[in-house]
Write a structure and sequence with these properties.
Helix content is about 35%, strand content about 30%. The radius of gyration is 15 Å and the shape is globular.
């Protein structure tokens, strides 16, 4: 089971960033494990992957549908994009970068590095186990997916 201390900083950071930057509140749905038959999750085609290394290894991925990406871009720029283009991907990268900055402050384990977000089209976290946290906001639903584990015996675990 994944340690919630590694997930909570990202949950808080997502709420803070969207509230501050897009004037949107978020609600976290019921977490579940990702399954390969979860075809409904395939609509979340825009991904921002954050890799973790050091005392904690793994990744956190923010996944958005094109409709949510468009709504977020519109909330920042005032104009809805006609299609998901490089500017949209840059905007998602900026959101993810702010999430990383805020999550890093509250992350419970030192000696952990968080990468710059890598924004792409697709699903970068396919291999199980992956924890899926659905979020609801004014512009729709998006996902946070995580696969995180501790490295070494010197770390205290709370499961």
């Amino acid at each position: 089971m994944m340690d919630v201390r590694f997930i909570n900083p990202f949950l808080s950071a997502v709420g803070l960033v969207l509230r501050t930057m897009a004037d949107m509140s978020v609600a976290v749905g019921k977490p579940h494990l990702k399954t390969m038959r979860a075809n409904a999750d395939r609509i979340y085609t825009v991904s921002a992957l954050i890799e973790l290394s050091g005392s904690v290894k793994g990744a956190v991925c923010m996944r958005f549908s094109p409709a949510v990406v468009s709504a977020l871009v519109k909330s920042f720029s005032g104009a809805a994009p006609k299609q998901i283009d490089d500017d949209c991907l840059d905007a998602i990268g900026e959101i993810a970068n702010m999430v990383v900055g805020n999550a890093r402050k509250d992350f419970p384990i030192g000696n952990t590095t968080m990468s710059l977000p890598k924004v792409s089209i697709g699903d970068p976290l396919e291999d199980p186990p992956v924890l899926v946290l659905p979020f609801e906001c004014a512009c729709g639903r998006f996902l946070i997916e995580a696969r995180i584990k501790t490295v070494g015996d010197d770390l205290e675990r709370t499961e």
